[in-house]
Design goal:
By secondary structure, the protein is mostly beta strands. It contains seven helices and 57 strands.
Length: 759
């Protein structure tokens, strides 16, 4: 017969630094070491930890960024319980004890006080310091949009979980919070107050399990799994007043993909289901008002559906598979509770997110969040396996024997899976673990300690990815994804379209693929002003040296090798749809097919004898309105430690700028072009802060790229002209297409390649 064992989640007690908060309030006075008030956190339900982004999933839920400690005078009426003392604490001792700065001689002997502790509030410390009474604290509400993504590090999400508690002096927490007598007599030593912090949020874990008819998969090309929450409660009282309320502060979130969406796998690595974790604030609703108040998860899980067609069993691909999951059967969520929802999925979901299929075969469980329930058979102890990290980053090292820790009920084995890098066209390239000595090991027979990770340092300027699967003898398993970085590494970003900031008339917005504007899409040289050292330009002329471009199609990894990851790039312009028509529409003409529409992001982590690592200096000129790369000789030797290179969406037509026949004229043209150039990535990010590279930055690009006959893994063959323009002059390209030596290089064979600092 099975029995259940309840155990408290162990408190992690680590000092957290003052750097965690920009609003540090020291408060109080100097207190002798032998006298004072200490707040004991380690004895509570939660311990103290460091920054949330440095922790494993469950540890994020314990992390404390700062504490607001408030001492109120006791009174019969809450309105009369005035604030006696407040302190924001951003540091704790290694034992989890917080020493308060309150003047202990101000504590009235025999008087009763209420001691409230609030962790991780988004309010400024002054909000608590100016509290008039306990009643004000009890009515204070906090709003946390995108609460379901707390601690993921994503924009517009909470970084830490709101918690609260009321301090007590006894060895165990009383059933009901109460005022306490801090000073039974004059304080002559240390008075310890205990507090258990509990989260304002509830945790929900949904597990959808595949069956014989549904096979979940991450292998369908073009599928975009994700999830969103309908009627997410995002507001809460800062402290728990014990009242469960219907919320009107509800949001339907955007569909997202986060680390809280996890594939479930068996020991062989086959996907068996999907697990989604999310967080909600307390909320209740009436069954008659479920549409506008019931909180549901809507999830898209790509799958294959096994069905019978024309007498034969076939597997049908479903890239979009939307399901709706009611998150509780109790029509409520309570603070600091843990809700589990499990379902076996037998049929495909909806293709349209607006009409999801509601899953019926649901099983619900609810626990206190500080407890976990473990099934145990016979007299054996609990079976468990825990690894402290699910992601590991290795920087220019072949061995990491310190970062990964494990604890298990039995010895473990570690296998290496899914080894690959992303090439210069965004294509995932599989590699052999054995070829690069990739392995994860532990001491033989050990059930706790370090996992040593080994892998030769990458030499191809790409990030290497691989997965460690840790499995113990009873089948528990943990997955660790490893990213390994060389000294110089390059990633790429797919571009969508380009334009210039000056493609407009007056104050109009520039003309783009999505904005007709003034319909300016090309630029040509007009005349040179010797006095100012500036060009004047003509727009929409037939002799353009640069035209706006757009990616019409990017070829998938399954295409022919010559097109994998490359794009069909077209010029675009706004033209009248017919003679005499006032309507304009987009017209396209071929620019390059296939072409490279990827921007390369180069990161350099060490200097060299050939250049100095540092941010190149920018300067100004009274004749122009923008900053540009300083042409000084010292600046020419600088290389930005993190810079991006414009894609082929930025290439110029060299035959149409020949009147720029001196370096002065050429650099002026190139400087203007980079300052006005805009490239929009495929994800919608706008990059409009380009500049001319320094001479050393151009040389870095030349060194990193391949040649016309020899490919490089991380960066395409970008620079093929004899010369390229830097801020300080022409730089010879030893990998030019013509094969010209520096003595043979043609002065007329020069080109422009813009870059931007990327931090």
């Amino acid at each position: 017969m099975k029995r259940y064992v309840k155990y408290m989640i162990a408190a992690m007690v680590v000092a957290f630094a003052t750097a965690c908060s920009g609003d540090v309030e020291q408060g109080g006075v100097n207190i002798p070491a032998e006298r004072g008030i200490v707040l004991n956190l380690s004895g509570g339900a939660l311990g103290v930890a460091t920054r949330a982004e440095d922790m494993a999933d469950n540890e994020r839920e314990y992390a404390i960024q700062h504490l607001d400690v408030m001492i109120f005078n006791d009174a019969e009426d809450k309105e009369d319980m005035s604030l006696f003392y407040h302190e924001r604490v951003t540091a704790a001792g290694p034992s989890g004890e917080v020493r308060l700065g309150v003047d202990i001689d101000s504590i009235v002997v025999g008087a009763k006080y209420w001691v409230y502790v609030v962790a991780n509030s988004t309010y400024d410390a002054s909000t608590f310091a100016e509290m008039e009474s306990v009643a004000s604290l009890h009515t204070l509400s906090q709003h946390d949009y995108n609460l379901h993504l707390t601690a993921t590090g994503l924009q517009n999400t909470s970084s830490h979980f709101l918690m609260d508690g009321v301090a007590y002096k006894s060895a165990s927490e009383p059933a009901t919070a109460a005022a306490i007598t801090i000073a039974e007599q004059k304080i002559t030593d240390v008075v310890t107050l205990n507090v258990k912090l509990r989260r304002a949020a509830a945790k929900v874990v949904v597990r959808l399990l595949a069956t014989e008819t549904i096979e979940f998969t991450d292998a369908i090309v073009g599928a975009t799994p994700g999830y969103y929450v309908r009627n997410l409660p995002y507001a809460t009282r800062v402290v728990n007043d014990g009242v469960l309320r219907q919320q009107d502060n509800l949001e339907t979130t955007h569909e997202a993909m986060s680390e809280y969406y996890k594939w479930m796998r068996d020991a062989e690595g086959n996907i068996t289901g999907v697990e989604i974790t999310l967080y909600v604030y307390s909320h209740m609703w009436d069954t008659s008002d479920s549409f506008s108040h019931a909180t549901n998860l809507l999830v898209d899980v790509p799958a294959y559906y096994s069905t019978v067609k024309e007498g034969a069993r076939v597997s049908v691909e479903h890239p979009n598979n939307y399901y709706q999951v009611p998150l509780t059967q109790e029509f409520k969520f309570e603070r600091n509770h843990y809700y589990e929802v499990t379902a076996n999925v037998h049929a495909p979901g909806a293709e349209d997110f607006s009409e999801p299929v509601q899953i019926q075969d649901l099983k619900y469980s609810v626990y206190q969040w500080t407890e976990r329930r473990v099934d145990i058979g016979g007299e054996q102890g609990p079976e468990y396996l825990k690894v402290n990290l699910d992601e590991l980053k290795m920087y220019n090292t072949a061995i990491d024997s310190k970062s990964l820790l494990f604890s298990s009920s039995s010895p473990v084995t570690i296998t290496v899976e899914n080894c690959y890098y992303i090439d210069k066209f965004g294509v995932q390239r599989t590699i052999s673990a054995g070829s690069y000595n990739i392995a994860g090991t532990t001491p033989d027979g050990s059930i706790a300690g370090n996992i040593t990770v080994k892998s030769d340092v990458p030499t191809n300027n790409t990030i290497r990815y691989f997965t460690l699967r840790v499995v113990n003898e009873t089948g528990q398993q943990e997955i660790v994804v490893v990213e390994q970085y060389p000294l110089v590494y390059i990633v790429n970003i797919l571009g969508h379209y380009s334009y210039r900031d000056d493609f407009k008339s007056g104050d109009n917005a520039p003309t783009t693929i999505y904005n007709e504007g003034s319909r300016i899409t090309s630029i040509s040289l007009n005349s040179w002003n010797e006095a100012t050292g500036l060009w004047s330009y003509s727009y929409n002329s037939s002799s353009a040296f640069w035209e706006s471009k757009v990616v019409r199609e990017t070829y998938p990894a399954t295409d022919s090798q010559s097109r994998q990851g490359r794009s069909n790039i077209d010029y675009y312009k706004w033209s009248r749809s017919g003679f005499g028509s006032s309507n304009y529409s987009l017209n396209y003409s071929n620019a390059q097919d296939p072409g490279n529409a990827r921007m390369y992001h180069v990161r350099i982590t060490a200097t060299s004898g050939d250049y100095n690592l540092g941010v190149p200096r920018l300067t100004t000129d009274p004749n122009v309105s923008f900053e540009f790369t300083d042409p000084g000789a010292d600046n020419a030797n600088l290389v930005s430690p993190s810079f991006m290179i414009a894609s082929r969406l930025g290439f110029v037509s060299s035959s149409n700028y020949r009147s720029a026949n001196s370096d002065t004229k050429r650099i002026s043209l190139a400087r203007d072009h980079c300052a006005n150039y805009v490239e929009v990535a495929n994800d919608g990010t706008v990059y409009d802060d380009w500049r001319l590279p320094t001479a050393s930055e151009l040389q870095i690009i030349i060194d990193l790229q391949g040649t016309s006959n020899e490919s490089a893994d991380a960066i395409d063959y970008l620079l093929n002209a004899d010369y390229y323009l830097s801020a300080s002059g022409r730089v010879y390209n030893s990998k030019n297409d013509s094969g010209h030596t520096e003595n043979q290089a043609q002065a007329s064979s020069w080109a422009i390649r813009c870059i931007r600092d990327a931090y």
